[in-house]
Structures are given as C-alpha cells and as structure tokens.
User: What shape does this take?
Amino acid sequence: MTFSSCLTEEDRQLVLDASVVINLLATGAPAPILRALGIPVQVTDNVVQEVSRGDNNGDPELASLDELIASETVRVSRLEGSSLEMFAELVSGSTVETLGDGEAATLAFAHAARASAAIDERKATRIASIRFRSLRLATTIDILANHAVVSEIGKEGLARATFQALRVARMHVREHQFEWVAGTIGHENVANCPSLRRLASSRPQPNREKLKG
Assistant: This one.
C-alpha cells in the first residue's frame, strides 16, 4: 500500500502535541524538517510544560525545544477565550472521554485557530473526530512523509530521522503507515524498533515452501 502525507497546501498552520514534539526532537533534525513545511508551527504552553516534565526526568527534550522556540521555528501560544473553554471541557469528565492537558490544549487551540493539529495518540484522534469534525489531523509520520520535507533532507536524511524517532522516542506508527516506514528505514531495521514489532508480527509471512519451489 502506498502512503502519502495528509499535509497539503490547505494546511495554513500546524499545532504540535507533546508526543509529536518529542518524536521530531529525536530525529536529530527538527528545525530543517519543520521549516521545510513552509507553514507556521505552534505549540501551546501546556505542551511546553509537558515536555519540561520529561526533561526533569533526565531526558534532554526541553533544551532542544527551547532552541526551536528561540529561533522562531516553533512559536508558543496560550489558550484564551473559546480555546480555554474547550480545553476545560476536554480535561473534565470521565477518564474514557477526557484527555491529558497537552493533548486537550493542542486540539482546543487548533480548533479555535482553524489550524491543523499533529497528534499521534489514538484516543485523542478518536475524540477529535467526534468533537471537531472539521479539524484537520496529522501525525508525526505525515510530517516526515511530506514531499517538501523529503526534498529538504533527502532520502538518506529521512531514513536516519525516521529511524531515530522510532528507536529513541518509540514513535507511534499506524497500520496503514507501516509499509512506508519499513521501506524508508529498510526492512532489516524494523526489528530494532520496539514500536514496530507488533505491526511487523501481524504482517503476512512469506511461504517458505513456495519460495523453495
């Protein structure tokens, strides 16, 4: 199956969730990747706080995010007005139907700003598809597979960036994205990526008897 990025010229602004930020920082090339998109990239201050908690646990993400913010590759926004009200709704209620602060802030801000949201978590994607039907959603893989990104960092750079995000950040990959990812990093490297093992095990295995014949 051929996979292509859902990001197009229709996306005028992109709001990143914390998991996407962490994945991109793990690539080792977050600045050229995000600049290649050619659109404003935002994070909420809630996401900055979430990433900072990982930094306090010994992960170096916050320093790298600070560099992106200082260079204005990524801009930080605060929730206010309708986005703040929607955020409150998304973090209140039963566990099944509520989100963490970073995810809720990302969706609320993107919806209010009529921007697109980059978010990998299935639960957040499900809730967004119900609450915000007009909201355009992307994943980290959609960012990496964007044609402008591929042109900017090249096939070798893309393979290295994708492999690093998988190995270091354990980037989430959806089933329909697996073949693109495996082809990008090389099928021989799939076993070295913990987040790919379940998907790889569910793929049809070649019939060795037929291959011998």
